[in-house]
C-alpha cells in the first residue's frame, strides 16, 4: 500500500518511460532534446522525485504525444490537477479538502470506469444533497456549517463525471446494509432510495445489491474502489479509504486480486434488474 502521490509519481514515470521507448529515444536522447541532465529523466521515470507540469508537457512534446486526453491524464498524475494549464473545479476548495481527497477526485475525474464495493453508505456519486449532508455531518461531527456546506457542494460537483461526454462508467455493488441503514431520517432515506432506482436506469450505471441472504462474503473486509483509465490498464489503481487518509494499491497482482474479488461479489449479488426492484421495495418500506 502506498499513498496517492507516490503511486501517481511512479505510474507517471512508467508511462513516460513507455512513451519515450515508443518514440525510439533513449533517456540520454530525451534529456538532450529537453535540455536537461540525463539524471533528471531517470528520476522522473523512477518516480523518485516530483514532476512539474511544465516538465511533463515538455517531455510529451519531445515524444510527440498530441492526444489531449492522454496529456490531461498524465498531467493529473503529476499531482498538480492542472491539466494543460486549466485549473480544475476542486482547486476552489483547497482550504477545505485534505490532499488525499483531492487526489481521489483528480483520479475520479480522469477515470473511464469505476468499480466500487460499498458496505456502509451509498456511493458519493449517487447521493442526494440531504443524504450527503447527513453522512458528512456524521463522519465529521462538530464541523462548522460553512465547511459542511462546502463539503456537500464538493460531493455533488463530483457527480458531474456521470454526465460528462463520455461519462464515467460506474459499476457499484451495494451490501444490503447500505439500503437498510437509515441516514438523515425516514424522508431523507426514502428520497435517497428513489434516487438509486433512477440511477439504476442510466446506461452508464450498473447497480447490484448483495443481499443479507448471500451470507458472509469477501467484501466483509471493507469497501474499495477500482479506477480504470482510458488507453492503458497500466494506470489502473485500487483505493482504500480510511478516516484520515487513503491508500492505493497498484501492483498487477493486487489489481488482479481485487478485480477477481469484485467479479465474485457481482456474481453473488442480485442482477441489475432484480436489484432495481429490490431497492424500489426498500424505498416503499422506508
From TrEMBL:
<dbReference type="InterPro" id="IPR001387">
    <property type="entry name" value="Cro/C1-type_HTH"/>
</dbReference>
<dbReference type="InterPro" id="IPR010982">
    <property type="entry name" value="Lambda_DNA-bd_dom_sf"/>
</dbReference>
<dbReference type="Pfam" id="PF13560">
    <property type="entry name" value="HTH_31"/>
</dbReference>
<dbReference type="Pfam" id="PF19054">
    <property type="entry name" value="DUF5753"/>
</dbReference>
<feature type="domain" description="HTH cro/C1-type">
    <location>
        <begin position="16"/>
        <end position="70"/>
    </location>
</feature>
<dbReference type="InterPro" id="IPR043917">
    <property type="entry name" value="DUF5753"/>
</dbReference>
<protein>
    <submittedName>
        <fullName>XRE family transcriptional regulator</fullName>
    </submittedName>
</protein>
Amino acid at each position: 500500500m502506498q499513498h496517492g502521490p507516490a503511486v501517481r509519481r511512479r505510474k507517471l514515470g512508467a508511462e513516460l518511460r513507455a512513451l519515450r521507448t515508443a518514440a525510439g529515444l533513449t533517456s540520454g536522447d530525451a534529456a538532450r532534446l529537453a535540455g536537461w541532465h540525463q539524471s533528471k529523466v531517470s528520476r522522473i521515470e523512477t518516480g523518485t522525485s516530483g514532476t512539474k507540469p511544465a516538465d511533463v508537457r515538455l517531455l510529451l512534446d519531445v515524444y510527440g504525444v498530441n492526444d489531449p486526453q492522454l496529456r490531461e491524464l498524465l498531467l493529473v498524475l503529476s499531482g498538480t490537477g492542472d491539466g494543460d494549464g486549466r485549473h480544475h473545479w476542486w482547486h476552489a476548495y483547497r482550504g477545505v479538502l485534505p490532499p488525499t481527497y483531492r487526489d481521489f477526485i483528480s483520479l475520479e475525474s480522469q477515470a473511464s470506469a469505476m468499480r466500487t464495493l460499498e458496505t456502509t453508505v451509498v456511493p458519493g456519486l449517487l447521493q442526494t444533497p440531504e443524504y450527503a449532508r447527513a453522512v458528512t455531518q456524521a463522519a465529521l461531527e462538530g464541523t462548522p456549517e460553512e465547511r459542511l456546506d462546502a463539503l456537500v457542494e464538493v460531493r455533488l460537483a463530483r457527480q458531474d463525471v456521470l454526465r460528462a461526454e463520455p461519462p464515467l462508467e460506474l459499476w457499484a455493488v451495494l451490501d444490503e446494509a447500505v439500503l437498510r441503514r437509515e441516514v438523515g431520517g425516514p424522508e431523507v432515506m426514502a428520497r435517497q432510495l428513489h434516487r438509486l432506482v433512477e440511477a439504476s436506469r442510466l446506461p452508464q450505471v450498473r447497480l447490484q445489491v448483495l443481499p443479507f441472504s448471500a451470507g458472509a462474503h469477501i467484501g466483509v473486509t471493507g469497501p474499495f474502489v477500482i479506477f480504470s483509465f482510458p488507453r492503458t490498464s497500466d494506470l489502473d489503481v485500487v483505493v482504500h479509504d480510511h478516516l484520515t487518509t487513503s491508500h492505493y494499491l497498484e501492483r498487477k497482482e493486487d489489481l488482479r486480486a481485487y478485480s477477481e474479488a469484485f467479479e465474485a461479489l457481482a456474481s453473488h449479488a442480485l442482477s441489475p434488474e432484480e436489484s432495481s426492484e429490490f431497492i424500489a421495495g426498500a424505498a416503499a418500506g422506508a
